[in-house]
Amino acid sequence: MEETSNIQQKVPVSIQDELRTSYLDYAMSVIIGRAIPDVRDGLKPVHRRILYSMNEQKIGPTGAHKKCARVVGDVLGKYHPHGDLAVYDALVRMGQTFSLRYPLIDGQGNYGSVDGDSPAAMRYTESRLSRMAVELLADLDKDTVDFVPNYDDSELEPSVLPAKFPQLLVNGSGGIAVGMATNIPPHNLGEIIDATIAIIRNPDVTLEELLHLVPGPDFPTGGLIYGKSGIVQAYTTGRGSITMRGRSQVEKTMKGDREQLVFTEIPYQVNKARLVAKIAECMKEKRIEGISEVRDESDREGMRIVVELKKDIFPQVVLNQLYRLTDLQATFGVINLSIANGRPAVLSLKDTLSHFIEHRREVVTRRCRFELRQAESQRELVEGLGMATSDIDRIVATIRASSDPDDARENLQKLPLRGLGEFLRRAGRPEPECAEADTRGDYFLSERQAKAILEMRLSRLTGLEREKLAKEYGELSQTIERLRAILADMGLLMNVIVMELEEIKARFGDKRRTEIVPAEAEIQMEDLIQEEDMVVTISHAGYLKRTPTSTYRAQRRGGKGMVGMEAREEDWVSQLFVASTHSYVFFFSDKGKVFVKKVYEIPQAPRNAKGRAIVNFVGMEPGEKVAAITPVPSFDGETFVVTLTRRGQIKKTALNEYENYRDKGIIGVRIEEGDQLFTAALTDGKRELVIATRSGMSIRFPEDQVRPTGRATMGVKGIELDEGDVVVGLGVSGDGRDRVLAVCERGYGKQTPLEEFRLQSRGGKGVILIDASERNGPVVGVAMVSPSDEVLIVTDRGQMIRTKTSEIRETGRNAQGVRIMHVGQDERVVAVEAFAADAAEAEDGGSTPPSAGVDGTNGVADHAGGNGSSEVN
């Protein structure tokens, strides 16, 4: 005989095809078998297996609590071959009153807290099914759902639970699968049941009618929902964003002269301990002004977070800041994704309830069929026993004449009985229902009836027992009639579903906890803060502050100026700009990221104060520094942000690309290694740009030579630099500003008409800007000015001078200029800022000038002198 080869044939497989197939199999396994709930019972497999296992172990609401370790072990061993921690976490969450609107587990022991405390180990905690969970498992033993083999084919488990109420919407769900996620909020049981009944009564019910019944989610932690637009969108499309807020009230403090905000409810899924810590952090860093103390006074009676306010503080202002800066206002992103008909689908409110109704229709139908079979089977036995009691003498004689039980059974089946009429009359049933009677009225027993008679006790022959059999027969007949009617009439079947839903509502329904309030025009911080121009300064060491421009009185050129910041030997003012309190401020970091703030958010301080660390204020990462700042009055699609690096790389990007900013910053510009961002300015795309260098060179070219690009680009070359030279200024022409103001380190400067700088192509070496002699020192910065403008000049010792540009001499490009500010021997100018001002008002005492920000296309060059760090190491 020829030996059979054991060598298996190798078939080449494409790695791409294999990975695609394997990953898709894995993805579907996660989606269907782990992360996404079933639309019918609202449960994921792990939750379904936990409830089924506890039901099998008879750990019900009327019994004693059992150790969670026992439940977890049974679930792992029989149904869920995954990690024990995953099973225990799922079990614990079903017992947390702050996670589920209607908990499915009645827990005993430490089940965690709203502060984020972890639950105790499973060997310490105990659990049992809640009464609500029993309603999910009801009728499981009546062939209502299909059972499937477990992971090793040793046990059977239900593929879905019968679920008497829409668990998916009532308790919600959340999960992340492969390529998709679900996030379904909890709802009020009574409202969801009312909506379900409404769809049963009228399948064409509209969303508007359902919204009257289900106004929105109902979170276990209460709180407020602001606005209905997100709810309507979520209920219509299955996706939406819902704004949640904590519930607050204003109380008088014990001292009586102050007020305090007291929060008794917080948004769903917000960690209370982290929330209190965040409020304390905002208070400490003075991001929220007006808070004197924050404390958590929560106890077993309820939640109570107290924010004590300083004297004469308007509570609504602090409340709005808390909503904006902390999780007292949070967003719930609804993704109503579930498994429907074996596939993941995003469903509307009506579709979700319709799937549940179809599930209940199938469950009730299968239950009625099961109960009908059981009733008919039982009635058959009762009927046989009734016949036996009516003709007992012949039955006994037949049994005694038989040789063995099998012979007795066969003889009984052949014995014609005539007591059917009498038995039916006792049962109140004049006509035979399922008896096998021939044309002569004889009744013959079936095999099951004959066996039942042989196993019958003699006590059943008493008169009382005969009456009980007759009564039972009558009740079974009525049950059979009712079940047959339900199965034959869809209307009656749906009435059964409605009746059961109403019963659940009557037993477990409660009042709504979350209040839904219409979206009002919120009190914006701008409405509570006076609009005025501010001088914003940033020091070399990274301290930031804002000071009213009126603080700096106008002086004649050549003066010594006044102290603008209390400077230390190791720190000095390096940047400044003027902007309205209502303007935005773009902070460009040296890594090319952009952080957006409002001017009024910058801490206000006296002109000689140090200010606040800008890194903490903006929220930059360790090691990240501010490279450039620029004010932005509003986001405009026709405005551009022009950025310039020390090596002369220039880039232009539409302003509206920065509109979707985040607290953690967004990409603003890509920086080449060894280079650093220097400044940023706003333009309308039709200006001329002037770039100045430290050695006194400059180049003028049309802005349209720099084509607009996206945020994450590097830009193009603006000027060719000599070795050792760097860019120190960017000027933007237009709006009557036709002079180039150049200022040097030793306090000298000059104005030069723009036309003296011939137009060139970008990327050239340019022409002389100013004679940067030993007397003048290197160039510090440039600005485009008009005769009516004013200029602020800052030294590294914190000295500032504000003067009119009309007092600065106008000379040619090669001139050295005049003394604008007197600086000491070891002092030097580090920054210059020009802004528009009314000349008459300035002479009368330096009143606040008009806005120096971008106003439409007017004044786009006002802050061109607001350079990035003018300090060159």
From TrEMBL:
The active site is at Y124 (o-(5'-phospho-dna)-tyrosine intermediate). It is found in: Cytoplasm. Residues 840-873 are annotated as: Disordered. The keyword DNA-binding applies. It comes from the Bacteria. It catalyses: ATP-dependent breakage, passage and rejoining of double-stranded DNA. A motif (GyrA-box) lies at residues 555-561. It is an enzyme of class 5 (isomerase). SUPFAM superfamilies: GyrA/ParC C-terminal domain-like, Type II DNA topoisomerase. PROSITE patterns: TOPO_IIA. GO terms for cellular component: chromosome; cytoplasm; DNA topoisomerase type II (double strand cut, ATP-hydrolyzing) complex. GO terms for molecular function: ATP binding; DNA binding; DNA negative supercoiling activity. The keyword Ion transport does not apply. Few gyrases are as efficient as E.coli at forming negative supercoils. Not all organisms have 2 type II topoisomerases; in organisms with a single type II topoisomerase this enzyme also has to decatenate newly replicated chromosomes. A type II topoisomerase that negatively supercoils closed circular double-stranded (ds) DNA in an ATP-dependent manner to modulate DNA topology and maintain chromosomes in an underwound state. Negative supercoiling favors strand separation, and DNA replication, transcription, recombination and repair, all of which involve strand separation. Also able to catalyze the interconversion of other topological isomers of dsDNA rings, including catenanes and knotted rings. Type II topoisomerases break and join 2 DNA strands simultaneously in an ATP-dependent manner. This is DNA gyrase subunit A. It comes from Sorangium cellulosum (strain So ce56).
